[in-house]
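Throughout our pipeline, every protein is held as a single compact record rather than as scattered files. The remainder of this section carries one protein's record, kept here as part of the documentation.

===
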Amino acid sequence: MTKKEKASFVQNKLEELYPKTPIPLDHQDDYTLLIAVLLSAQCTDARVNKITPLLFERANTPQQMIQLEIEEIREIIYPCGLSPAKSKNIWNLSHILLDQHAGQVPESFEELEALPGVGHKTASVVMSQAFGHPAFPVDTHIHRLAHRWTLSTGKNVTQTEKDLKRLFPKEIWNKLHLQFIFFGREHCPARGHHPNVCPICSVVGRKSLFK
């Protein structure tokens, strides 16, 4: 199979398995989505979804968030990990949204990535899921699947993102990256993976997976 044929197979299989792609992180609007995505760094979505209701009950707007002490935020989000840095970033970006963006989450990659704690992946999630702009957020899980399925030989998520964007139509990026995530969790985990029964690895997986 050529790489294009493999991509077509992956696309069709994922659409078959996951025709609906609800956003995994619970949120109310673009601000709460931004905070949830920031909290999800090195933390599971399930844990984030347990913590954000506690945080958003106290503050779900930039105006309310800056009324909290950083230490208060840190105590609430502690189970998500990296709480000292994340709490400072949440408080500081909330100030910036009020000071520079009239309290609104900016709708551009450049302005999002200028916010504390917001990297390209977080900005991509917000641009795609909050604003509907075509983006393909690639995390370590998608990077793993793309490598297993020989869709990319990228050594980092930046190159993998470029490779996947070349292989798949722009109009499906927003849905497809979620389908990758859902599939990875259910069928293609980092550990305890059985490629011979994986619906995709068994067809397009690297030969070394089966050794």
